[in-house]
Amino acid sequence: MTNPELMPIGSFAQRCGLTASALRFYDDAGLLPPAQITPTTGYRLYGEDQLRRAVLLRRLREIGMSLAAVGKALDADPVEAIRLVDEHVDIVVDDAAAARRQALQIKDTLLARSVEPVAALSGPVLAAAIGQVVTAATADPDIAVLGGVRFEAGPDGLTVTATDRYRLATRTVVPTGSRPTTWAETVDGGDLRRALADLRRSPRVEIEANENEMWLRLTGRGDRSCRLLAEPFPDHRAMLDALPPVTTRAAIPTTAFLNALEERNADQIGMVVEQSTVTLRDLESENDIRIPATVWGPSLDIWFEMITLYPGISSAIGAEVLIDFRGDTQPATIRSADRGDLTTLVMPTVPPEVGQPPARDR
């Protein structure tokens, strides 16, 4: 006797989104046997309680999981099944990245593009430099180049620079080998971020480039390709050269400065720079925070956007951060007191008034 609550294979196929032939295949593979097979006709019949497994099976196959992996996921508890799905996705992403790199190499071969050596450096050193400056890049759909990092190789080393128009971060690192190449291009910031983990683990990286991409040749970890952006990068060197003289300079303990900023819950931060103190204030709190500092020059009252100031301080190296002020309307330069190869410029904002929106919104 057949169970009247069971569905024939055609009806079940429509319910779960699989074809009848696929259901027969998954039965043969042992992944989804029918609830019953009629003894006289050999028809496969399926129960309502099998729908969830059938739908999950279909979805796992749609993301390309192998039969063996699907079988494990179907029979696993939810936590283990999620781990198996994540593991499969990681493999797919890695395979896609490898295919993309291979495709780029094939296209280079077909188009006979020449690859130019740029520099050889310590992987962790380059990763640190990129990580520090890329915080100044931004995802602006109207100006894609602001999401990139400018690479400039020359006799002084390799300089990496990023800017979002409100701040600019630049750092120069010295190559490990002597390469006189002069080269400058803007590299996609997203591609660089995705390469950072492998770059940190590679003792040495060789940078090569052609007209469309920059290659990071990583020791023991394969290669990473980063796209080059065609838009012209902002003329940051002209801006740096045009900066007025420094009027006030402050050396501030980095950790104390960061802790004070993290205690603020405001969009804009005021800094009162005096002879031996820097005071942080905002319109959201009545409690000012005073930080001992060494100050040269006249006192100054200046305001910054939190999202502009904090990344500049947090990326600084060393126990003290050195800030050069040029009045309350000009960019301030943030450097480490003991290392000057990382420089960040941050634009101040107009002093806020009670009830006013942030300066960027006005």
The CATH superfamily of the largest domain is known as: DNA Polymerase III, subunit A, domain 2
Distance between the termini: 78 Å
| Global Rg | 29 Å
Q: Low-confidence segments, ≥5 residues, pLDDT <50?
A: 357-362
Task: Tally the helices.
Answer: 10
CATH architecture classification of the largest domain: Roll
* CATH-assigned fold name of the largest domain: DNA Polymerase III, Chain A, domain 2
Largest sheet features: 13 strands, antiparallel
Strand order of the largest sheet: 4-9-10-11-8-5-6-7-20-19-18-12-16
Determine the mean pLDDT.
87
Give the SSE order as H and E letters: EHHEEHHHEHEEEEHEEEHEHEEEEEHEEE
Proportion of residues in helical segments: 25-40%
Jot down its keywords:
single chain, 362 residues, alpha+beta, Multidrug-efflux Transporter Regulator, Chain: A, Domain 2, DNA Polymerase III, Chain A, domain 2, four-stranded antiparallel β-sheet, 10 helices, disordered C terminus
Report what the structure shows:
This is MerR family transcriptional regulator. Keywords: DNA-binding, Repressor, Transcription, Transcription regulation. GO terms for molecular function: 3'-5' exonuclease activity; DNA binding; DNA-binding transcription factor activity; DNA-directed DNA polymerase activity. One of its GO terms (biological process) is DNA replication. By secondary structure, this protein is α+β, with helices and mostly antiparallel strands. The protein folds into three domains: about 110 residues, Multidrug-efflux Transporter Regulator, Chain: A, Domain 2; about 120 residues, DNA Polymerase III, Chain A, domain 2, CATH 3.10.150.10; about 120 residues, DNA Polymerase III, Chain A, domain 2. Helix content is about 35%, strand content about 30%. It has a 13-stranded antiparallel beta sheet, sandwiched between helices. The longest helix is centred in the first third of the chain and has 34 residues. The C terminus is likely disordered.
